[in-house]
Design goal:
By secondary structure, this protein is of the alpha+beta class. The protein has helices at 12-25, 32-40, 52-55, 78-88, 104-113, 126-138, 281-290, 355-373; strands at residues 61-65, 71-75, 95-99, 118-123, 145-148, 164-169, 182-194, 197-206, 209-212, 217-218, 234-237, 242-245, 266-275, 294-299, 317-322, 325-335, 343-351, 380-385, 400-402, 406-411. The chain has 2 domains: 58-224, Rossmann fold, CATH 3.40.50; 234-376. 21% of the residues lie in helices and 29% in strands. The strands form 3 sheets. Strands 3, 4, 5, 6, 7, 8, 9, 10, 18, 19 and 20 form an 11-stranded mixed sheet that branches. A 7-stranded antiparallel sheet has the order 11-12-14-15-16-17-13. Strands 1-2 form a two-stranded antiparallel sheet. Helix 1 (12-25) runs antiparallel to helix 2 (32-40). The radius of gyration is 23 Å and the shape is globular. The model is unreliable at 1-6 and 418-429 (pLDDT under 50). The protein binds S-adenosylmethionine. Residues 72-76, 98-105, 122-125, 128, 150-152, 170-171, 221-222, 224-226, 228, 431 line the site of S-adenosylmethionine.
């Protein structure tokens, strides 16, 4: 891999090499092909509205907003683009579909697929495809085919005979309706929502199903529009400002929970600790699959009555509902930690008359994860076409997520736990 000695802030080439150096040092760039692509494609030409140094920062560039200010299109963060392109394993000559356009990532893919490859990028928003078409032409990547369509329904003629060799999904998706469009042996990389948690997952298609084989990366992308929009099934406990969401699984009634949320909870200690900077995303994925009635709990900041203490801050917290009772995962600071960033214990708060039992149930799963799966950086995820599976019942099936097009199974390898081994996770809000 090449490196550049200069860091001139007015020189896009220097900035581009500086960014690639940074991504390689952090392990996001892992092959010469991805390294070459990131050092070649002029990212700033796809983001003319921002200063050069912003275009080459390791962050998203928002390019389109809805009327309420929500970002609806962006150029994704370079670290995540590099991770996803590495996971896609694109080779010269490959036929590749990118879902969600912007132009820049399609140009990176075009570098990887080479002159004999075929790259299609597809977006639901004509303003995005207009822009992508223009920038791809201006930068010399006009061989990329740009299509305006809802990815939920790939238009006839877009999918090549035998399917794509790789599909890279760059929009937050609740389901994977693209298995048929992928060639056998092909790669699909997507930020998949499992119970509201987003995971960038690389799959290989084998005998008609998708199988993940790499560590998962936690990420955030702009929301899906069109017919693939997911239903958050968000319910509000009356008079409390507390919301419970069932993005997967069967939503439960919540009205009866109001009294439980007005009294102090019981606290079940797990004696399992986590560092202040240590991700524990696989714990929430494990709890989401293991526990019936799993949901995610959030609270309006101005409705906080002190009962949910500490309230979930940046992200909704893991919770389960048991009749008129509820348990939720929380962390309690118990020290500074060796790095000074804090040492926390997982505790489970039980609300309502049966809250202590629900809390015990959740605490047992925290212990199970810690003992058996904590160092498993890579639970194996399989996506099978729903059409070939038995209809999903209303009973909880552990670690199975029934989607519209697919049935997702999460297999947890048994690996004796060690906190020190839990390291792999990206940051959020990157696409
Ligand atoms: C993060 S941006 C894509 C970033 C781009 N790949 C890049 O070069 O960095 C996500 C895009 O997905 C698009 N999108 C949302 N829902 C879609 C759908 N149903 N079908 C196709 N595109 C969709 C949005 O319009 C948005 O432009």
């Amino acid at each position: 891999m090449t490196t550049s000695p200069t860091t001139d802030l007015d020189d896009p080439t220097a900035l581009r090499h500086g960014l690639a150096d940074q991504l390689a040092a952090a392990g996001h760039i892992r092959t010469p092909a991805v390294d070459h692509a990131l050092r070649t494609v002029p990212r700033h030409a796809f983001a003319p509205e921002v200063p050069l140094h912003t275009a080459y920062a390791d962050d998203i560039v928002a390019t389109r907003h809805s009327d309420d200010g929500t970002v609806t299109s962006s150029i994704s963060a370079p670290w995540l683009q590099a991770d996803m392109l590495e996971a896609a394993r694109i080779q010269p000559g490959h036929r590749v579909l990118e879902i969600g356009s912007g132009g820049y990532n399609a140009a990176l893919i075009a570098e990887l697929a080479g002159p004999n490859g075929q790259v299609t990028t597809l977006d639901i928003d004509p303003a995005v495809t207009d822009r992508a078409t223009r920038f791809l032409r201006q930068t010399g990547y006009d061989q990329v085919r740009v299509v305006t369509a809802d990815a939920e329904h790939l238009p006839a003629g877009v999918v090549p005979d035998g399917g794509f060799d790789a599909i890279v999904v760059t929009v937050d998706t609740w389901d994977l309706p693209w298995i048929d469009a992928l060639a056998e042996g092909g790669r699909l990389v997507a930020p998949l929502r499992l119970h509201g948690y987003h995971w960038a997952i690389g799959f290989t298609k084998d005998k008609g199903a998708l199988h993940s084989d790499e560590p998962l990366v936690v990420c955030g992308f702009v929301a899906m529009q069109g017919d693939g929009v997911w239903n958050t099934n968000r319910r509000t406990v009356p008079g409390t400002g507390v919301h419970l969401s069932w993005e997967d699984g069967t939503p439960l009634p919540v009205d009866q929970l109001a009294p439980a949320l007005t009294r102090e909870p019981t606290v079940t200690r797990t004696h399992i600790t986590v560092g202040g900077q240590e991700p524990f995303d696989t714990l929430t994925l494990h709890l989401a699959g293991a526990l019936p009635g799993f949901c995610r709990l959030s609270v309006d900041p101005d409705a906080d009555n002190g009962i949910l203490n500490p309230p979930p801050r940046h992200w909704p917290g893991a919770a389960i509902v048991r009749g008129a009772s509820l348990a939720r995962l929380a962390t309690e600071r118990i020290g500074d930690g060796t790095d000074g960033k804090g040492l926390y214990e997982f505790v489970v708060h039980g609300h309502g008359t049966q809250g202590h039992l629900a809390a015990q149930e959740m605490a047992e799963q925290v212990e199970h994860w810690h003992r058996n799966h904590r160092s498993a950086r890579c639970p194996l995820i399989t996506a099978r076409p729903a059409a070939g599976c038995a209809p999903a019942g209303t009973d909880h099936e552990p670690h199975v997520f029934a989607k519209k097009h697919t049935r997702i199974t999460v297999d947890w390898p048994i690996v004796p736990g060690s906190a020190a081994l839990l390291t792999d996770s990206g940051s959020c809000g990157a696409g």
